[in-house]
Automatic annotation (TrEMBL):
SUPFAM superfamilies per record: Nucleotide-diphospho-sugar transferases (SSF53448)
Family: Belongs to the glycosyltransferase 15 family.
Matching InterPro entries: Glyco_trans_15 (IPR002685), Nucleotide-diphossugar_trans (IPR029044)
Alphabetically ordered keywords of this record: Glycosyltransferase, Membrane, Transferase, Transmembrane, Transmembrane helix
Entry's Gene Ontology molecular function annotations: alpha-1,2-mannosyltransferase activity
Transmembrane stretches, start-end: 7-24
Gene3D superfamilies, per the entry: Spore Coat Polysaccharide Biosynthesis Protein SpsA, Chain A
Biased composition (Polar residues): 34-53, 66-77
Protein name according to UniProt: Alpha 1,2-mannosyltransferase 2.4.1
Length: 407
């Protein structure tokens, strides 16, 4: 009896072994999955990214034609907008030492905007640009790049400036720890941006400009042509951030402005933005200004007799060197007095950063639809030190929905 049970167990084990061998041999005949290849191997089918399904097998002729050439049939078309371009350029004041900071700025501008429009870029320097700066920036910009040297007479002390007096002022500002108070180059820069950049021979080819500084960032996609928007809506100056200027840097600027307006009253237009920069009809200046490290504007306005007379008057007053007048209040006061209110535009939709301030568009729906990466809590617009809320009030504009949450 025990022997019969042993034989039965052997028979059961043998049957199990036969069944396992059958399944193993069957599984080895199942074809392996067909994965897309990306390194020039045309022997397998490629995946269609729009459906996530395998594409139809290639014919013999197709295989032969792509044997040594990458198959680009499924790639997206260039992200370039159609239509005519405006006569416009980006403009940057930089030196060779700024190469990697400006490279970061270019990358932001190109990724968020210019890859669609391919506008030119003008680089200006008080010295000569080196080979590496030119090579790197040219590679990053989708439009043409141009490199210009600033004439010495535009980046030096004018003959009418008492340099001993100017040096004494710088020393006093250094003791008071006023930002850039002891810097000579910063003063040359402010004077140049105030009155000369738009007169450089390279800039004379253009009608519109977008100023870009090293180490700035854009946080949202810009799907439309900002230059065309400015032209079609009859805008001449624009901003993303506004704030109050350091009082210590411009103690006599408003006196110089009032002297200008008394000599050239014809340059002050009706319907201007005086109420934005003064709370007593022009008797005093409240120090509000547009932060000029971002500007999109009209070059013909800056080249006008009105603006040239304005800058020349301020220049002879000496405040660029005897004090520390910045180009931001100089541009802002000019725009407030010489342009109609409706000719100045606030770009809420251009998310912008320049240390230490951020403009993050107010409105969650816009931020989500335009792939914005800024934190709305960092938005400076409705901060007490910002002048943007005042700009809305003076112009009778309704503040963007949700601004209360950012105050």
């Amino acid at each position: 009896m025990a022997g019969q049970q042993r034989y039965l167990r052997y028979i059961v084990f043998a049957l199990i072994a036969i069944i396992l061998l059958f399944f193993i041999s069957s599984s080895s005949s199942v074809p392996s999955a067909q994965w897309p290849t990306y390194k020039g191997d045309q022997s397998q089918t490629a995946a269609d990214p729009s459906t996530n399904k395998p594409a139809a097998p290639q014919t013999g002729a197709e295989k032969e034609s792509t044997a040594t050439t990458p198959n680009t049939g499924n790639q997206l078309p260039p992200a370039t907008a159609g239509g005519e371009r405006m006569n416009a350029t980006f403009v940057t004041l930089a030196r060779d030492s700024d190469i990697w900071e400006i490279a970061e700025s270019i990358r932001h501008i190109e990724d968020r905007f210019n890859r669609k429009f391919n506008y030119d870029w003008v680089f200006l320097n008080d010295g000569d640009f080196g080979e590496e700066f030119i090579k790197v920036t040219t590679a990053l910009v989708s439009g043409k790049t141009k490199y210009g040297k600033i004439p010495k007479e535009h980046w030096s002390f004018p003959d009418f400036i008492d340099q001993d007096r100017a040096a004494k002022v710088r020393e006093e500002m250094k003791e008071k720890k006023i930002i850039y108070g002891d810097s000579v180059s910063y003063r040359h820069m402010c004077r140049y941006e105030s009155g000369f950049f738009f007169r450089h021979p390279l800039m004379l080819d253009y009608e519109w400009y977008w100023r870009v500084e090293p180490s700035v960032k854009l946080f949202c996609d810009i799907e439309y042509d900002t230059f065309k928007f400015m032209a079609e809506n009859k805008k001449k100056y624009s901003f993303t951030l506004s704030l109050y200027e350091y009082v210590e840097t411009i103690p006599t600027l408003w006196d110089a402005v009032k002297n200008f307006t008394s000599v050239y009253p014809q340059h002050v237009v009706e319907g201007n933005s005086m109420k934005w920069i003064s709370e007593d009809d022009g008797k005093t200046y409240n120090h509000c200004h547009f932060w000029s490290n971002f500007e999109i504007g009209n070059l013909n306005w800056l080249r006008s007799d009105a603006y040239i007379d304005y800058f020349t008057s301020l220049d002879y007053a000496g405040g660029f060197f005897y004090e520390r007048w910045g180009d931001a209040p100089v541009h802002s006061i000019a725009a407030a007095l010489m342009l109609k209110k409706e000719e100045i535009h606030f770009f809420n939709d251009i998310a912008y950063y320049h240390v230490p301030f951020t403009h993050c568009p107010t409105g969650e729906e816009y931020r989500l639809s335009h792939k914005c990466s800024c934190n709305p809590k960092d938005n400076f617009d409705w901060n007490g030190y910002s002048c943007t809320a005042r700009f809305f009030e003076v112009n009778g504009m309704e503040k963007p929905a949700g601004y209360e949450k950012e105050q």
